[in-house]
Structures are given as structure tokens and as C-alpha cells.
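Q: What would this chain look like folded?
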Amino acid sequence: MLKDSFKILTFLLFILSSVSLGAQERLSNDPKDEHSSSKNQDNKNDEQWINDLHETISDSVYQSAAWFDNFFTDDGNSQKNPKVNARIRLEWRPKSRAWDEVKARFKVKVKLPHFKNKLDLILSDDDDSDQNQLPLETIKIRSDEQEEHFSASLRYLHKVEKNKFTDARLGISGGDMFIRARHRRHIQWDDRHAFKVEPSIYYFVKDGLGSKLLLEYDHQYDKNTQFRINYSIRGSQSFSGIRWKHGFYKLKHLDSTTATVMSFQVQGERNGARGFVVDNYTLSYRYRFNAYKKWLYFEIEPFLEWPEQEGYSTTPGIALRIEGNFYKG
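A: My prediction, written as C-alpha cells:
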């Protein structure tokens, strides 16, 4: 187990170092150098395989989406192009007493044009309900809960305006059918303050009725720095009590390819069999950058945890992630 973890670490470090060396080599190439043309040709050959990978995955997802969308029309001359966005992320999250936490996650979102782009097909192994979106991100990559279930759903956008929207989902997650309705509203003033409220209600056939409320306040300190506070509560017939989570964040946009976030999160439960309890404290620093290709992202996130199951003892760790975004249409 430990041996496999070191293999994964070696692979991730090799990818990161290759990206860094590749960037340095591109910057050091002088177009007037007599060898620059041959170096550029070598670089093109080296990069061809990753370009082919991106094109193959994008085309594959796109063709499947077009095939699915064509079920909703019987007019062969009314072909429309769906919009596809897919995300694949690999993560290794070693920490003391647990070195083998490896995750591979994906999300595919397809806008179906025959429904005037109001209907989306979403395939994912990750809940997208969390709103802790970083600069440089186009897709949310953090789930509010630690459960990992494959889900397939159709999302319908009932009403979309500048500062609010309402949507509904019907699908299956973890082998359980569900339906969910959600409303999101933004309030902004002075170009420095923003408030978001997002209530939702859902029903799972096995777990019963549930609901969630997310409240978030953003303060734009300057052009590149934002402070964020959010609070969420979730209740369901499937468990007693109410799950809650507080988050405090400092988001920093360093440049066009790099962003960071410092965060402190506290989560727990209240009104349950044990009354009020804190499950975990987490302090982390997340460094995210785009390199090598515009669709490829890397992350390094050292963190400290104080989990209840470990007697709130300090548990250090680090998360290493590679994420690819594939899109077409």
C-alpha cells in the first residue's frame, strides 16, 4: 500500500516537473537561434500525444451527446450541435495514518439544443452542490459531502435571470432515484459586497425527503483578493439531526494562470442523538495553476485536520491533483 502511494507521488511529481521544465524551455528559446526551429519541431512532436488525447476524449463525449440529443427530434434536417463540457480529475491525498487515499473523479455536462438549451444531461461521481469556486475555475471541483456516488440526471432550467435562477433535477445517484429543486439568488452592491442564498429541496426514494440551505457573503477587498464566508445546513429523513458547515476563505488571483485560497472549515451536527458536535476542523492552503495546456490544471494543497475520530489530534496531509477539462460545441 505504501509502495503504491510512493509510485503515485513519483508520477505526480514527474508531471509537475515536466510542466515546469517545458515552460522554462519555451521561455528560453530565442527565435533568432539557428537551432530554434528544430527545438520547436521537437516540442510539437512531444506535445502531439496530449493534443490527440484531448481531441479524442472531446470528440467521443461530443458524439455520444449528439446521439442522445437526436432522440428528441424526428427531423433529420434539424441537426443542432450540443455543447459538451467534461472534467476528469486525479487526486492523491496522503495524510498521517492514511497514505492510500487516491481518487479519480469525473463530470460530464451536456446542453441539449433541442430543448432551447434549458435541459442539461449531467453524469458525475461528485455532488456539485458546493459553491467554493476558485479563480481560474470554470467547474466546481469540491463536494460538500464526502460521499462518492455515480449520478446521472436531467436538469431543467426553469428561470434564468442575471442574478437568479431556478432549476430542477431528475435522476439516479448511488442506485437511488431522486428529484431536486433549487433556487439561487445573488445580491450585489458597491462592487465590493455580494450575498448569495441558495435553498433546495430534494426527495430520494430510499432516503426520503431532505433540504439544504446555503448562505454566502463575499467581500472584494481589491482587484485580485476576495474574502468569503459561507454557512450551509442540511437535513434529511435518512439521518437524525442537522448537518452544518462553516467556511472562511481568502481567495487570491495571482495572475492569469495562478490562483490560491487559504481556508478554515468547521463541520459537524446538531439536534441529533449526540446533540451539538463538531466532526472536523480543517486548515488548508490551496495553490492552483494552469500550465502546459489551457485545459490542464494542477493543484497542491497542504492541510491540517483535527478530526473527532482521531480525538482532535493534529493530522497533517497534502493533496496533489491533476485536472483536465474537455469541451466541444
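The CA atoms of residues 115 and 164 lie 20 Å apart.
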